[in-house]
TrEMBL record:
It comes from Diaphorobacter ruginosibacter. GO terms for molecular function: ATP binding; ATP hydrolysis activity; cadmium ion transmembrane transporter activity; metal ion binding; P-type zinc transporter activity. Residues 15-27 have a biased composition (Basic and acidic residues). The chain crosses the membrane at residues 58-76, 88-107, 261-281, 293-320, 600-620, 626-645. Residues 141-242 form the P-type ATPase A domain. This is P-type Zn(2+) transporter. One of its GO terms (cellular component) is plasma membrane. It catalyses: Zn(2+)(in) + ATP + H2O = Zn(2+)(out) + ADP + phosphate + H(+). It is an enzyme of class 7 (translocase).
């Protein structure tokens, strides 16, 4: 699997402008030397300093040239390419500064500056790669071999790349699942932490899904492979995070644009300092040129430009390891601003596993026929309520019944309809029944009795009358009430928006501790309400898991798709954040992570700019040295990297 998956993390990191092989796109393995040459350059540069101390000028100059060649040939090449394109990046600044220092006789300092620069950049480069590649460590959780069951009953251990789709694989107790598949034999519990971010054991039996990287705890399982190694859910999570890491967050784009303007301005100021200081401040030409060169070194936008990507990458990785798939830096930054979150009911506040708790035919003697027709319509729908009705009725109907429904159509926000035995039937909510003109006071009274208990009522009807009533109950998730409390604690107002009937929605919302609950909504109604919230309340998020939720997820400032391991493809594609488990508490976690990332981003930016301001003042006072400049600039670069990397171990608070 590690060999098959390819993503942005395998490219050398870039944290700046990408033109000309310079700026920080030039911080790559083609520009910077390896550690052996860097160590050699540092040793030779130290020798140049010693030679200068003992006044061995020619020996010192030769050693300085050698040290610069060992550590800076790639920098010079990239810098010259940049200057030829009239671009001023970090390599161009370093090349000019080191050359100028050498020309004015500061060759020991020039050599040490270049060697220290190469060493600091290599450390920074490796730290950034470590941040980007941290998410790929998840792939190591999936075994590289699988125990494949052959036709003769024997077991053969094969590399996962050679295991074909549909193959039967044995997963022993205590072993990790090698590929995605479905259980065909056995029962056990499985730790799905790599997928969900929680070490919560999940019961597995025949027909259940298994995910690569999860750990079989107890009984032996046999599974049928459903995905190749490069398309397992685990691999897709890693690839999605890598794609998110490759995108630029708004703050990062701002910093990059700022650096493009800032660097030329400081370069011009350095030239002016060198030219005007002898006349305005009475400095010698040597002193003014030296201070200008020190200013060039501190003008390097390195720390400023890397301050954002290392923070964003670390935050995205930390989120993924907690079962939160954030699909880009924009979503990460926007989450901190959320003021309102709209929650769907079914599958979001509730478990999404409703059961049929009561049903009745409204005409005497119509039980069998109504049940059969309702089962045919429900079994062809993928809505959780329809599935619950189909499963409940299947227990009471004869086995091997034919499904003869024709022209089945989904009715968004209402239900389904189809032709059964030549007659059009609908399995729908009260809204549809009212539109058909079949609602009666007695029928609505029956519905109210069910709905006040938090049940969802679906009705079977033909063109003439309502034939049956089906009451489905979907229990509240165990974490919903706590999640609502945490949302309020971070300043986010929860509101329930559901297509279910208003009485049921309010009953479930009250159980979760939510006061504002709105039901009987069509997909367009949800879109209209989201637009209203965005205007009157501020940035608005939406959470859902179904196809009907996809438009609202796209409309929201931040869209959260529930249960990424089993959510609908459309919801996952549309949402900007995917919760790989069904724990609503991951939403306030995302808000807190976003705020932590924002805080660290601006700590880093302030630190980088603050150091530059200090050295700018020192240069104007004639007190800056190139040693101080390179140590301070590279030191603050490493400091912002270390500060950003702290988010990799973010604990959710």
């Amino acid at each position: 699997m590690r060999r098959l998956l390819r993503g942005p993390a395998q490219a050398s990191h870039a944290h700046g402008n990408e033109d000309g092989g310079d700026d920080h796109a030039g911080h790559d393995h083609g520009v910077l030397p390896g550690w052996p040459r860097i160590f050699a350059a540092l040793a030779v540069a130290l020798g140049a300093e010693v030679s200068h101390w003992f006044q061995l000028e020619y020996v010192g100059m030769a050693l300085a040239v050698l040290a610069i060649a060992l550590s800076g040939l790639g920098v010079y090449k990239a810098g010259i390419q940049s200057l030829l394109k009239l671009k001023l990046g970090i390599h161009a600044l370093m090349a000019v500064a080191v050359t100028g220092a050498f020309i004015i006789g500061q060759w020991p300092e020039a050599a040490m500056v270049m060697a220290l620069y190469a060493a600091a950049e290599r450390i920074e480069d490796q730290a950034m790669d470590k941040a980007r590649n941290a998410i790929r460590s998840l792939l190591n959780l999936a075994p590289e071999t699988a125990d494949v069951l052959l036709a003769d009953g024997t077991v053969q251990k094969l590399p996962v790349e050679q295991v074909s789709l549909g193959a039967l694989v044995r997963v022993a107790p205590g072993a990790r699942v090698p590929l995605d598949g479905k259980v065909t034999q056995g029962e056990s519990t499985v730790d799905q932490a790599p997928i969900t971010g929680e070490s919560k054991l999940a019961d597995k039996a025949v027909g259940d899904d298994l995910y690569a990287g999860s750990v079989n705890q107890h009984g032996e399982l046999q599974m049928q492979v459903t995905s190749p190694p490069d398309n397992t859910l685990l691999a897709r999570i890693v690839h999605a995070v890598e794609e998110a890491q490759a995108s630029r967050a708004p703050t990062q784009r701002f910093v990059d644009r700022f650096a493009q303007v800032y660097t030329p301005i400081v370069f011009v100021l350095a030239v002016l300092l060198a030219v005007l200081a002898p006349f305005v401040m009475g400095w010698t030409w040597h002193q003014s040129v030296y201070q200008a060169l020190a200013l060039l070194v501190i003008a390097c936008p390195c720390a400023l430009v890397i301050s954002t990507p290392v923070t964003v990458v670390s935050a995205l990785t930390a989120a993924a390891k907690r079962g939160i798939l954030i699909k880009g830096g924009s979503a990460l930054e926007e989450a901190r601003n959320i003021k309102v979150i709209a929650l769907d009911k079914t599958g979001t506040l509730t478990t999404g596993s409703p059961t049929l708790v009561q049903w009745q035919a409204l005409a005497a003697g119509d039980d069998a026929d109504a049940a059969h027709i309702a089962w045919q319509l429900a079994s062809r729908s993928d809505h959780p309520v329809s599935r619950a009705i189909a499963a409940g009725l299947a227990k009471t109907l004869p086995a091997n019944l034919e499904n003869t429904v024709q022209d089945l159509k989904a009715l968004p926000g209402r239900g389904v309809e189809g032709q059964v035995n030549g007659t059009r039937h609908v399995l729908a909510n009260l809204r549809m029944i009212r539109e058909m003109g079949l609602a009666t006071p007695e029928l609505e009274k029956q519905l109210v009795e069910q709905e006040t208990q938090g049940r969802t009522v679906t009705l079977l009807a033909d063109a003439r009358s309502v034939r049956a009533l089906f009451a489905v109950a979907d229990p509240l998730r165990s974490t919903s009430r706590e999640a609502v409390e945490q949302l309020r604690a971070v300043g986010v107002e929860p509101i329930v928006l559901s297509g279910d009937n208003t009485a049921t929605v309010r009953a479930v919302a009250a159980e979760a501790g939510i006061e504002d609950a709105r039901g009987s909504l069509l997909p367009q109604d949800k879109l209209d309400l989201l637009a209203t919230f965005q205007k009157t309340k501020g940035p608005t998020a939406m959470t859902g898991d179904g196809i009907n939720d996809a438009p609202a997820l796209a409309k929201a400032d931040v869209g959260f798709a529930m249960g990424g391991a089993h959510s609908t493809g459309m919801a996952m594609e549309t949402a900007s954040v995917v919760l790989m488990n069904d724990d609503l508490r991951r939403i306030p976690d995302t808000v807190r992570l976003s705020r932590s990332a924002h805080s660290i981003l601006w700590q880093n930016i302030s630190l980088a700019l603050g150091i530059k301001v200090i050295f700018f003042v020192l240069a104007l006072m004639g007190m800056a040295t190139m040693w101080m400049a390179v140590v301070a600039d590279m030191g603050v670069s490493l400091l912002v990297v270390a500060n950003g990397l702290r988010l990799r171990n973010w604990g959710g608070k």
